[in-house]
# Entry
Amino acid sequence: MRTTAMTAPTHSEHGLAVATLVSWLLAEAFGAYMLSSWLGRGGHRAPAEPGGVPRSVIFGHAGLAFTGFVFWVSFVLSGVAALSWLSVGFLAPAVGLGISTVTLWTPYPARQPETQPDVLVYDGMLGISNDEQLTAVLEDEALTTKLVDELVASVLSRPQPAPRRARVQFSPLIPAAHGIFALITIALAVLAAVTSAK
# Structure
């Protein structure tokens, strides 16, 4: 009867497994933040939009990634190579669903509302209350000059808003960091699984 002894992982193999664990933790943290934000905004209760991501894809992505993470923690603690491959088996479809989510719909960055340009109001100037009266004023050069002077005085008398400082938007960095750490994790996990099987 042939028996196979389980050899203890070398220091470099264990270091690779721990590096994968750290990368995976960071990816999970960013993913958990995005999922909790989506749940907090009621995304799971909103009706499905045409062309949008089904809720099953989002929850499937999160569930597969977390299940793979649990198996990876078990691998790091036990050193059983089969657990590393089982973990990779859950991680691969999780990455696929994550890429699908990014491709179809990304809640970050939030689209900023467009500001409306200031509209010059001529209502009430020179007794103008409609477009016909404005047309009549524009046909008379003296009245047109007076209207322009009143419009310029009106614009100059408005208080000027304080210049707004450009705000840095960090929200696009969250899914980007999640994706980068997910790619690093899958690469490290496969490498660690291969080295642990030797």
Summary: Residues 27 and 182 are 6 Å apart (CA to CA). The chain has two domains: 11-109+172-197, 125-157.
